Amino acid sequence: MRLLAIVSLTLLLAACIPIPQRVQDEFSRYDGERPNNFVTGAHRGGQDESGQDVGE
Amino acid sequence: MRPLITLLGLFLLGELVSGCTSFKDATFANYQAFAEPSGEYFDTPLASGQIIMTGSKAPTDILLGLLPQEFSPYIHLGIVMIDDGEPYVYDETGDPSLNLDPEVPPTSTIEGMVRRVPLERFVDRYFYAEIFEPAGADRAKVAQFARHHLAAQTPFDRYFNYNDDSAFFCAEFVARAIEHGGGERATIAPNRPNRSVSVVMGWLGVPEETIETSSLVDQSNPVVRMSSYSDSEILALNAVKQEFHRRFTADQAIGNLFRWDGLRPIMRINGQRLLDKSLARAKTLPPDPQLIQAEVRAIADRLYGEFGD
User: Fold this and answer.
1) Alpha-carbon dihedral of residues A41, A44, A48, A50, nearest 10 degrees?
2) Chain A residues whose beta carbon lies within 8 Å of the beta carbon of residue B268
3) If contacts are CB pairs under 8 Å, which of residues 1-56 in chain A contact chain B?
4) Could you tell me which residues come within 8 angstroms of residue A52 by beta carbon, excluding any fewer than 6 positions away?
5) Mean pLDDT for the stretch of residues B141-158
6) Which of B102, B255, B305 is nearest residue A20 as measured by Cβ atoms?
7) What is the predicted pLDDT for the residue at B237?
8) Which has the least CB within 10 A, A7, B211, B261, B282?
9) 3-state secondary structure of B279
10) Chain A to chain B, count of Cβ pairs less than 8 Å apart?
């Protein structure tokens, strides 16, 4: 049981690479203010990339 | 090849270890030989000193593929070796250690060295692999270089410094081996300018330049191709990555295509849709590069809107 807990803790710690905010910001969601060449159909020009209608 | 390719190792903390079986017993759905048997390994063209290059659809690999000025479908490379009658790949990789300080980039904790992996296990990790003759180099000398640095346990170059011969990153290991074998020095080119990428690369502390794979091998003439996927699917994957590369202009942010899940980059659903739709379409098409590239571009135009050259 103790071994299992240690293994779980190790996996939990290993499951996260901390990154500074400025780097996190580059991975942040499309905010509608910057150019985006990958916005799907119904949301082209919008903010949400998770819509179901992809304009096909 | 891009010097940042082995950043792959930055994000892949848990490396899946598959079973080790003899390559000659392996059954790749797609195995093609384009050259005569070498006499080194059964009736295959495989020989020590050849260069193996891989293509992948992993988000980290697709992200790294956006960086170079010149598009390359390959993400990792190594040197083929026949040892004791079995084929292996010698390559240079590293993995980051545990680090909880966000201002300490994972690059500074990477540890690694030249390693030896059974060929089948190496290929299984990727979408496909192709093997080439080293450009203008003596295969025996390339192999000699690889053996020397495996024995010397030459460390992984965590800062991707091509001018430092005491450590190598993956493309540097291969480029130096080809140079040792009499081939020309690899071409180094600056990455495409992109503010978003520069923020991340600045944090990682790695130079924004790449080794061009086209200077290492004749990419139009593979000796062997191996994959669990068809040629059409391989062409579609390459075409998708090329389309991402084409649309990822200087004003694009990494977040347009990827998010960070705490461990590694994950492709957003808009990018995943192009990949999934293109691979599904490719299953119905003949392996014609122009046809498949046109189909992928048409799907991208429907998804994201038309995008000029």
Assistant:
1) 20
2) 38, 49
3) 13-30, 34-41, 44, 49-50, 54-56
4) none
5) 96
6) B102
7) 98
8) A7
9) helix
10) 104
Angle of helix B231-247 relative to helix B269-282, nearest 10 degrees? 150
Identify whether the C-beta of residue B90 lies closer than 8 Å to the C-beta of residue B146. Answer: yes
Quickly list DSSP for B163-219: T-TTSB-HHHHHHHHHHHTTPPPPPEEEBPP-HHHHHHHHHHT--SEEE-GGGTB-T
What is the tally of helices (H) and strands (E) in chain A?
2, 0
Q: Is B186 exposed, middle or buried (0-12, 13-18, 19+ CB in 10 A)?
A: buried
Say yes or no: ipTM exceeds 0.90.
no
pLDDT over threshold 90, residue B23: no
Q: Chain A: residue nearest B106 by CA?
A: A17
Q: Hey, what amino acid is at B281? A: R
Q: Check whether B228 has a pLDDT greater than 60.
A: yes
Pair B120, B146: CB distance under 8 Å: no
How close B280 comes to chain A (CA, Å)? Answer: 15
pLDDT in tens, B73-106: 999 999 999 999 999 999 999 887 777 777 778 7
What band does B182 get if pLDDT is binned at 50, 70 and 90?
Answer: very high
Q: Read off the pLDDT of each residue in A29-36 and give the average, rounded to a whole number.
A: 64
Q: Which residues of A touch B263 (CB under 8 A)?
A: 15-17
